Amino acid sequence: DPEKKFNMFVRVEGAYFGEGKEPENFWDSLNRPDIEYHGNCKSYIGEDNLAIVKPVKPAEFIYHTAYPKYGYCTIEENAFSLSAPWDIHSDDANTDFSTSSARWDYGHGIEYRIPEELINNTRSDHNESVHERLIFNEEEERFYKDRPQFIVYDRIYARNEEDGIIPEEQEGENDEWRVAKKAAAQMGENEGIIVILDRERINRKEYERYEELVDVFLGKKENVQNLSNGELVEKIVTKYENNMTGMANVLGEFCSKFCIEGREEMQKMLQARIEEICKQDVKSGLELIDKTIQVFENEVIKEYSNVGIKEYQGMDRGYDSLARQLKIRRKEIIQGISNSKKKQLEELYIQNIIGTEELYKVFLDLEHEMDDKKVDLSDSIDMN
User: Fold this and answer.
1) DSSP assignments along 143-156, one per residue
2) How far is residue 379 from each of residues 80, 161, 344, measured CA to CA in Å?
3) Phi, psi dihedral angles at 278 (to 5 degrees)
4) Is residue 127 a contact partner of residue 51, using CB atoms and an 8 Å limit?
5) pLDDT per 10-residue tile (average), the chain, 384 residues
6) For 344, which of 92, 113, 204, 327 is 20 to 30 Å away at the CA?
């Protein structure tokens, strides 16, 4: 149901082993006693960020796989090992018995985040959490494997001129749907449970939520949550970037409302609204500029942290240059306030209300205020 918000862990079995060989029984395959990797690698997703690993084979991406996507809604006690808002490349940590003594920094290291921030900081193909594959059952005094609670089917829609947009599984030739149904029928105590990620409907609902935030920010809708303008800017940017990240792996097969052109429109809207607020109330405008600079710079940090210096140098999402533009604008506004106050002081001096020594002293105090960014934005000048 796209109306409901959700979170889950998703594991794409065999994601980095090419096409793989489909087992006769997925439940038996999950529970076989031998293991090569004791770390169970998963991605944490939600309605606003559906970034799931895309199976690969040499030299190209493929969408279908010989294995299903496994879904988890719980974590066993003491099973949590590693996590980061990016692909950890946790190879050695998954083969060593002790993850803490293994090398885990093949990618960009680990960075533990609370669930919401794990999603909000994911800006590459997917995030990664590593859970212990072997779980000890104290009552039965034996180990068992970390088992999924359901099968995840990542629905993609087929588009054609005759039928329009219909779910691929209804066309009859969808290998992933076939594998999902087979695996679900073999899932032991969780037999038959398939959670369908309907990207088309989820994406539409998310865009509605995004538009509601924009309307509140523009004053077109009531601010029921009583959010500040700075909080609204942060929610708008985060909502947009989360959804763009979540659709990155399926853009060839899916027309997302969250796209590069839409991002540019969003950024222009934010700039225009900030200018309006600055004209209405300079103090509120400067506070909003400060918060927006922080939000934009955080997005730059998220992107850089996820992809590294080489990849980042070839990207341009606009936030870096926008943050610099806002800093220049902020300086212009403050300088305008400074010039206005200096003009008022000069008028007082001309009218012999203040003397030369006092004028010089107030000018120095004003310069210090500007340097410290502690500007008195009132219209009058306090001479005491």
Assistant:
1) EEE---SEEEEEE-
2) 57, 64, 10
3) -60, -40
4) yes
5) 88 69 85 75 94 65 66 87 84 59 57 93 90 82 86 75 60 76 89 89 92 97 96 97 85 67 93 94 90 94 70 66 91 73 59 58 59 46 37
6) 327
